[in-house]
Amino acid sequence: MVLMHADPAATEAMTAEERAEVLRRHDRLHSNLAGTGEMLNGAGLALPRDTTTIRLRRDGMTTADGPLTGATEQMTASYVVDCATPERAPEIAGRVVDFHLVAAEVRPVHDSFGTEGSRPDGTPARRVQGAVSYGAKPIASAMVGGWSHD
Questions:
Q1: DSSP secondary structure letters along 116-144
Q2: What confidence tens digit (pLDDT) does each residue in 66-87 have?
Q3: What pairing do the DSSP bridges indicate for beta strands 131-134 and 127-128?
Q4: Is the pLDDT of residue 124 over 60?
Q5: Which of 2, 5, 113, 144 has the fewest CB within 10 Å, making it most exposed?
Q6: CA–CA distance from 60 to each of 25, 53, 56, 64, 70 (Å)?
């Protein structure tokens, strides 16, 4: 999984031209990964101010407005990709880190549900023990950043 992170304040401060350029880059990546059959799914996240955090405390369940951590950079979106090799997911993630997306984490998925092992075109993804995979290891899904496209 590649988790993309951006500074929400910087995202909101982007010009229309900057947003359009970021969107074009992501559209090119989406098209490329759909063409190679690697794209399984993805999702953009709303800004952190629209987050509710739920925690279990000694005195019961609590909720708070905002993200779990107060970090400047917050996770912003996700792609799940079907990679043939462990090296491919970082290659994909490296294509979106830029002036807007300041960091990407690549993390293997050990368990999954809801994708039913198929790509958007309906062809099956590789699966091992319920997780999309490359070879006998869990796949790196790519979580790629962006913003809400209202």
A1: TTB-TTSPBPPEETTEEEETTEEPBP---
A2: 999 889 999 998 888 888 898 9
A3: antiparallel
A4: no
A5: 113
A6: 45, 14, 6, 13, 22
